[in-house]
Amino acid sequence: MKPKKYFSLAKEGRNVDIMVYGDIVSYKWLDSDVTAYDLAQAIDDLTDIDTITVGINSYGGDVAQGLAIYNALKRSPAQVVTRCDGFACSAASVVFAAGDSRVMYDSSLIMIHNAWTYAEGDANTMRDVADMLDKVTEPSIKAYRSVMDLTEDEIREMMDKETWITADEALEYGLATSVIKEKTDKTAQSARKAVYQMIINPYQVADDEEIKCAGEDEDENTTPDPTDDTDTTADNDNSDDNPGTEDDNTDTPDDNTDDSTDEDKANQMVCNFLNAIFR
């Protein structure tokens, strides 16, 4: 079954994947819009299903539609996994809270706030609208409270401020049950070290050994070895006839070099080769 661009339902065996990538509305104006009628009916029609996975990337929308989708997922006998693929804002965050397991990517966000609307009329009408909005907000608070390790007052305060929640914060609050972390290592550098080890000495180079080539910056925290007795002024002391100049023979290779010299040259050749590839 070829999935649609925004809302799609794909069944494979006893597992179903649902993608909610659009605004949650009561009437479809755009192809990207998602209605509770479409989604809730599709969920209710599922039988003999073990797992429903709902991927969410939505700015939210109509509170009533979001609550209907939330309740459709909650009454499903299947195990429900909600996954925040990008944003789960407003009504979409309520849908996210419906999951038995709630997964976020490290680079995803959730936003919660109070219900709001447009209105016109006199002061009495506006007071009625304000009271209505307070009541409309209550089911969302209950949905968050059912999964979050926060008090109702703390959740209300976050909603009053319109709060954006990172993946780590959602995990701390209990809104998310797990976070998919992005890899932080630099692929090119990791590949470079791996190739270096395989070429030079795959069995004797330790995994945690720092590999550096000529010209690479040293660690800022590197301190001189206190046991090193090398006199760094030796070259200048041996140049009494030409003060202020270096020994003319400093760049001349020593004919009596030890066995490590050829290995060092080979290592540098490999470093130059890897630098050309990965830098």
Q: Mind summarizing the main beta sheet? A: 8 strands, mixed
Strand content: 15-25%
Specify the oligomeric state.
single chain
Helix percent reads: 25-40%
Shape designation: elongated
- Cα-atom radius of gyration: 32 Å
Uncertain residue ranges: 1-6, 203-211, 218-223, 232-240, 242-247
Number of helices: 9
Give the averaged pLDDT, no decimals.
77
The run of helices and strands is: EEEEHEHEHEEHHEHEHHH
> What is the SS-derived class?
alpha/beta
What does this structure look like?
With 279 residues, the protein is α/β, with parallel strands linked by helices. Helix content is 37%, strand content 18%. The chain contains 9 helices and 10 strands. The strands form 2 sheets. Strands 1, 2, 5, 6, 7, 8, 9 and 10 form an 8-stranded mixed sheet that branches. A two-stranded parallel ribbon has the order 3-4. Helix 1 packs parallel to helix 2 and helix 7 runs antiparallel to helix 9. The longest helix has 23 residues. The N terminus is likely disordered.
Question: What is the compact description of this entry?
Answer:
The protein is α/β, with parallel strands linked by helices and 279 residues long. Helices cover 37% and strands 18% of the residues. Helix 1 (36-44) packs parallel to helix 2 and helix 7 runs antiparallel to helix 9.
